[in-house]
Description:
Order of helices and strands: HHHHHHHHHH
Number of strands: 0
Shape: globular
Number of helices: 10
Largest sheet: none
Radius of gyration: 17 Å
Strand content: under 5%
Oligomer: single chain
Number of domains: 2
Distance between the termini: 51 Å
Amino acid sequence: MITKVEALSFLKEHQPMPSDTKVTEEEMKRYEEVRTFFIKNPDEQCVSLFLNSFGGKDGLGIYQMVEDVIIMYDKEIVLPCILHAFNNSHKGVKYWCIQIAANFPDESLLLPLADFLKSEDQDIKIAAIISIAQLALNHIKVYEILKILKENIEHIIDKETKEFAIEVLEDIQNNI
Length: 176
């Protein structure tokens, strides 16, 4: 059984985790143990640490489950951590924080998410589109979002990403 001190220490030592190609099975087992610990023993100290721990594509299937920990906390705790993590240089951190941001729709996310629409990385761009759509679905700056999406669609080169962005734009327009 892991202790709170050990769990926090592990996360502090893994900012971020190694990439999926370099992470060991033992590290991922420990990461899952830490994740499970904080589901059973909530402590807001873990929020920022988890948000900055994403080291690769999917953490061998575990990263998507970190959301289960983060959504236990109020947006007043989570949003500052997400906004800070958006500045992390690691792609995995940015990608997963953009994904998680969809669960915490708030006006403060709009401009940072809009910046991610300019990313060369299609995964980051798609995650940003999804999170921005969640803002609109929650009636947050809908007309500003429509303008941002329209402006950015012109610059999307990847066909699938562009089609997805157009579909999202149309869905938002149909729900006004």
